Amino acid sequence: MFRRLLTLAIGATLACAGALAVAAPAQAAVVDIPFGPLSIGDYCHSRYPSAWIGFYESSGLRCYTGSGGPPQYVGSGDPYLACKFLTTDVVMSAFRGTADSLVCRVVR
């Protein structure tokens, strides 16, 4: 009786181990995450304390400040580093989206 129970337990263990060994690994997904001017501004503020808004313009990522008047340019930033600042996902690339937004292509 004991021998049968032991054989059954070993067989069940091997079957479970075999099922886990051939299971497909989890697939990573590539996702585009858009960020607007205020989110870009968070990154800009980390570089330039007076900056509060940012745009990804044709000339690059630019940071602005202003209170009551038109925004004033204070400096530029790196789009890839902005993505690294704004998301904890693995960043593949950064590119310009519609309305001067920043789009981060990430792996999840």
List keywords for this structure.
3-stranded antiparallel sheet, 3 helices, 6 strands, 108 residues, elongated, single chain, alpha+beta
Structural notes for this entry:
With 108 residues, the chain is an alpha+beta fold. It has three helices and six strands; from the N terminus they run αβαβββαββ. The mean pLDDT is 87. This is Secreted protein. Keywords: Signal.
List the helices and strands and how they pair.
Blueprint: H1 2-21, E1 30-35, H2 37-47, E2 53-57, E3 60-65, E4 72-77, H3 79-86, E5 90-96, E6 102-107
- Return the structural class: alpha+beta
- Envelope shape: elongated
Q: Helix and strand succession?
A: HEHEEEHEE
Overall tally of domains: 1
Measured by DSSP, the beta-strand proportion falls in 25-35%
Helicity level, as a percent range? 25-40%
Distance, first to last CA = 51 Å
Biggest beta sheet attributes: 3 strands, antiparallel
Mean pLDDT: 87
Contiguous low-pLDDT stretches (5 residues minimum) are none
Strand order of the largest sheet: 1-6-5
Q: Total number of β-strand segments?
A: 6
Write down the Rg: 25 Å
| Count of DSSP-assigned helices | 3
Summarize it.
The protein is 36% helix and 33% strand. By secondary structure, it is α+β, with helices and mostly antiparallel strands.
